[in-house]
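BUG: 3D viewer hangs when loading the predicted structure for this chain

Environment: internal workstation, default settings.
Expected: structure renders.
Actual: progress bar stalls at 90%.

Input used:
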Amino acid sequence: MTESPIQEPAEERYFELIEQPKYLIGSVAKMLRVNDHVVRDSINLMGLELQRDESRRKARLFSAENVFDIANFRRKRGLLSWDSPPATVVVYSAKGGVGKTTLAAELAVQWGFRGLRVLAIDLDTQGNLTQMMGYDPELEQDEEMPIDSRQLVEYNFGSLFTIPPVLPNPKPLADVLKMPYGANGPHLIPSDVTLANLEDALLNAQVRDFQVLRLLQRGLTKPTLQLDLSHYDIILFDAPPSTSMLTNTTLLASDLCISPVALDALSFKGLSILGGRLINMREQVGRAPAVVAVPTFHREHRRRVTKVMERLNTYYGDILSQNMVRETEEFKRSNVDVEMPISLAFPGSKTAVPDLQNLADEMLLRIKSIMGATSRETGGFDHA
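Structure tokens produced before the viewer hung:
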């Protein structure tokens, strides 16, 4: 029988946007892909204090933060390892509605379950990734109903740049950063409508094509108290489906572009547009990310889906992922409703979560290959 997350009792916590679920030990084991006894051993060694169910069972209840804390503990003990240099990944499609933001959120969470330190950066002024991770970009402080300042989105990726006159005073990364699942979970640089200021600044900046790349390199190789990215394994961008300068500079700064392709003709065309852009980028500036196309909303025994897959294999077989994301109710809801990552909302899913786990593993293998690291078949991880 599949376990479902247990919700916390309702309380007067008016500032919380999305009530985070609580999980039984079986769900935590599924997330981390270990046995129940491994979870028990870990929390005993950690001395982790957990909430107890109010029912007669008094079962231990885990928060998402607890799950990532356990993953981090297992990495520190050498049970999870990652020996690749820091990588920059962008999830991008020229067409909307293909599951792009959902995929970005799921990769961040799944990689976090493996003990990786992930920084997710929302580049869409609509803030869908920001909302999926529990923040409302439009929320403002109200004197009559005070809001926990940690829930407010006050800064975004543009806040880190120095590009006068539009962006003259950069903010420290610590002020911009959000930690929706605690210090050991995926971190987030949120987005709101004021991110458009970065687009305006880039249009008038010198060497504008390399602004994002320079910022990342500075934070990774010459960290300061103001900007330190050196402890992240993967920096993951969720880029909007546009041809903006910000999207171009982010593609240029990335090592890998993951492009979801919903299995219909229109998103197939979107992949063609992306290919053309990257060819031009390589010709003009001598750099472009590797690309992997990920089929989404796959439905078996559908004639149209079969035809699109055949075309994808014919024209893009060399960049097509081995794994795909099948169309499920969870994936459709997450893509439309923008609630929370599937891997946290439905840990017992028998289709969506295994698809996302397999895809996350495959992407890690590709990242290791791209970054030139020696890789084992497991992608550097021991799931024992």
